[in-house]
Amino acid sequence: MRLTDQAHALIANVFKAGETAIDATAGNGHDTRFLCQLAGPSGKVFAIDIQQQALDQTAAMLLNFEYKNYELICGDHQLLTELIPSEHRCRISAVMFNLGYLPGGDHLQITRETSTLSAIEAALALIRPGGIITILAYPGHPGGAAETRAVSSLLDQLEATQFKAQRIYSHSDSTKAPRLFAVTRLE
Ligand SMILES: C[S@@+](CC[C@H](N)C(=O)[O-])C[C@H]1O[C@@H](n2cnc3c(N)ncnc32)[C@H](O)[C@@H]1O
């Protein structure tokens, strides 16, 4: 199974209809669409991207469906706490990060170690007990190896009585192969 599919499988185990999720890197909208489908009409998805171009592509893609359960937010995910209304604190069921750059877009608009760590820390404070964060990281991108190591190290430092961290490697032995991280807040 591809790591993107594994991330979706982990999310689907936790995120149920009527709940709220965040796509912290909307990109072309594939993860947002997946989350909208799970959320159902009574749920909600916040999709964030630093590039308006990505949100335009996400909006265009979602037009093919009849979802009305999402909100697109243009901003830096390191400001997640400010971007998401405060009533959602500790009530978010799932947060997805798919790091790197927009496929087909500007490769200089890439996720960066410092802001990624701040965003994950903010996401940790937003998820409910039992909630999950998935982070798909790409060590082969410029800066991606350091970013992937930093994410791994952040997960090492999590309080084991509060969070469970998982690392899922792709089948390739290459050091440049993508990595999937998942963090669950214990109930
Ligand atoms: C690999 S793409 C995401 C793919 C997307 N999840 C999908 O399903 O199509 C990474 C996205 O992260 C966005 N990004 C980069 N830095 C960001 C930041 N600091 N805050 C929010 N989004 C950022 C990029 O603009 C890009 O669209």
Give an overview of the whole structure:
This protein is an alpha/beta fold and 187 residues long. It has one domain: Vaccinia Virus protein VP39 (Rossmann fold), CATH 3.40.50. 34% of the residues lie in helices and 25% in strands. The protein contains six helices and seven strands; from the N terminus they run αβαβαβαβαβαββ. Strand 2 (44-49), helix 3 (52-62) and strand 3 (70-74) form a beta-alpha-beta unit. The longest helix is centred in the middle third of the chain and has 14 residues, at 113-126. It starts with a helix and ends with a strand. 42% of the residues are buried. The mean pLDDT is 96. The chain binds S-adenosylmethionine (SAM). S-adenosylmethionine (SAM) binds at residues 25-31, 48-51, 54, 76-78, 98, 100-102, 109-111, 115.
List keywords for this structure.
187 residues; alpha/beta; Rossmann fold; 6 helices; binds S-adenosylmethionine
